[in-house]
Prior knowledge:
Elements lengths: L3 H10 L3 E7 L7 E6 L1 H7 L3 H4 L14 H12 L4 E8 L5 E12 L6 E10 L9 H7 L3 H33 L9 H18 L3 E8 L2 H8 L1 H18 L5 E6 L2 E7 L5 H13 L4 E3 L2 E3 L3 E8 L9 H14 L5 E3 L2 H23 L2 E10 L5 E12 L3 E3 L5 H7 L2 H21 L7 E5 L1 H4 L4 H7 L7 E5 L10 H13 L2 E7 L6 H7 L3 E4 L1 H4 L9 H13 L3 E4 L5 H10 L3 E2 L10 H11 L13 H10 L1
Parallel strand pairs: 11-12, 14-16, 16-17, 17-18, 18-19, 19-20, 20-21
Antiparallel strand pairs: 1-2, 1-5, 3-4, 4-5, 6-8, 6-11, 7-8, 9-10, 13-14, 13-21, 14-15
Amino acid sequence: MIPAQIFNQINDKCTEGLALALASNDDGAVMELQWCNKAFTKITGYEASEAVGQRGTILIGQDLEQGVHLYIIEKLMNWENFSTKALNNRKNGEVYWQRMSWAHLSDPETGNRWWLCSIIELEDERPEPAKDAMKEAAISDQESFERVFKKIHRLEKENARLHKLAKSVAKDANEDALTGLSNRRHFEVELKTWIENLKMHQTEFAVLYIDLDRFKFVNDTLGHDAGDRLLVSVADMLRELTSKSDLVARLGGDEFVILKPLAKSALNISSLADEIVQRMQAPFTCEGKSTACSASVGVAIAKTKMEDPDQIVADADAALYHAKSQGKGRWSFFTEEMHANAIATKQLASDLLLACERREFVPYFQPLIDAQTGRIACAEMLVRWAHPTKGILAPAAFLDTAANMGILKRVDEIIFDSLNGALFHLDESGVDLPRVAVNVSAARLADPTFIHDIKSSGIDPQRLTVEILESVYLDRMGDVVRWTIDELDELGVTIALDDFGTGHASVRGLLEIRPAILKIDRHFIQPIVADAAARPLVASIVGIGKSLGMRVVAEGVESEEHARLVSEMGCDYLQGFYFGKPMSEDDLRDRLIETGGKFWTCRPLELDGELKRGMGRAV
Length: 619
């Protein structure tokens, strides 16, 4: 195999324009360009990105003589090596003289048929008609005959050289430059062959999809050279564990795949998957520094009775995703349950796209009550999907899939538009809703267009609270998120930190984000009625918020006693089913009209001494 460095020099330094085209097995004149060198670009005017993927007809200019054009087609159709000298055009239409040579190649391993085209720019001279070679061959003069013979000999040597060069190019086109394994293109070609053999000869096989769990960490801590060495060592390990009948490929990045014929049982498949996982548990060392980089493996079996064997790689990928979700550093078989989930997810994704078109996402509202006055102070907006057949769906049913699809921005746009309309209708009805709160994920905060969406929504920023979900993992909070939070603050939007105490948020988070409102997670609030020992912790959290000048919301208030306890602890706002479950715009309006905006009358509750002492310590 020609080293990659040498091949790169051929690409850079060869003054002869070279292009490699994959031809149709049925017609040699039908081809698609797969590669070209820099000289080809310079001579023809076509950049590699413009030429690759195009038909060979882009090499035929408008000024190329029709007879030469027909001669080229005839030779290509008959799979004959040939050379022409003719007037042709560059991409921009400029006319120039060229010698174009074509060499027919074939790959015995794949059966693919190729053409290698060589283009040399000539000095201005008369064209050499394609039929001149036949005329010269018929000349009886001995001197002319020898001249033709030498010319043919030179052409044969040239074609032999081009054939050798093209073989190295074809090999490089099928191999991953770093590891020497099959690359994605070669894998996809081979997979089609394996699937055809499955359909025709019942040769069942397995797909093992392999992904390194901590590859980015290796690159970040040891450098990209170490990352490359790790990939090479993984490739060597996979070669060692597989046989010649297997196909091992690197699809790109840190993803590998193995095609393995299925023996009488799947035991050898599971043993291979287990061995790969076990081998990857060992520390990886580079220049005296060690780190861990485990691997997860997804396995799927291509069986004769499969309805859609073309899905086999997607099945293995689904099994890989399942293995990673279970804790990484393990392997998993693809199951019928995963198949059902995959189908359901595809259907859900399709329905979500339609839901965006039909604007089926609607806002629901849950009241936040002022602990001192008992009046509504705000309503948290919660997105719901008004599904045409399944009714109103909560976010848990669709939001993760929407995030994976990258359509959360579109959902936000629909919801903000609906929210603006809802506020207008509530104001028109004469009811008082001072503020609304919306949940925002860390990913959405990192979107530079989020501020624009807030401004263009038409909602008065002074009436808007943004609740930060996932508490933005502060050790990863980048400049964009920091900028977004500062911009929201300048606009007059109130910042609230949601679900405080669940493990993501921290006191450090409060100091970094400096929210105006701190929301205590419902899991801390719910036990305080039945378990007095749980109360000092809540009191301590309230004390932390108060000491930093924040207003505190108690989530999960589900009873009168809940409301009284957290009010006496110093919570400013109360939220929970006791005051109302999430409700539609119409239901919220009716409730506000019915109650006049007052949801609760606060009556003092005597706290026990231990709780008072706990509150004192917290403050």
